[in-house]
Amino acid sequence: MFNVWFAKSLQDHLSASNSDIIVNSLAPGLILTPNFSAKLSERVKTEALDIFGAKGYTIEEGSRSLVHAALVSSEDREQEKKLKGVFFSFGEVEEVSDFAKGDVGTKVQAKLWVSSCFFSATNNPLNGNRMRLSRS
Question: How far apart are CA 22 and CA 44, in angstroms?
Fold first, then answer.
């Protein structure tokens, strides 16, 4: 959910500055990589496939979601506005949950944005800053 909120916030900020950049989030589904097959027990694989509707995707099929989201655009400016800050699942725009777009979700989204900006500014090695982890 955080990736959806972050993408929506970033898109809102870019749109406010009249940017043509499109930011979206996506879920390509369960990708059946060699690591999936080799490193997981049969029970875990079966449960994962049950959760995802007994459908796993090849790497090529899963990559189509990434390509589709990356290349989304429209000649119609009004239609293109509808494609900004959305969530794609299996190559289709999916409506986010009522919680995510409701009052509480919107507040969480705003807090996540502020926290992300703070974290980026205070832990950016390009600015001479880096996160220091101490062991207590």
Answer: 36
26: β partners: 88
Strands 87-89 and 25-27: parallel
CA distance 45 to 42: 5
Which residues, in sequence order, are CB contacts of 73 under 8 Å at separation 6+? Answer: 22, 80, 83
Give residue 12's domain range: 2-123
Tokens linked to 37: 């097959």
Q: 46 or 115: whose pLDDT is higher?
A: 115
Q: pTM for this one?
A: 0.65
Distance CA 52, CA 126 (A): 40
Do residues 121 and 29 touch, judged by C-beta distance below 8 A?
Answer: no
- Whether 8 is in a domain gets the answer yes
Number of domains in the chain: 1
Query: 54 lies in a domain?
Result: yes
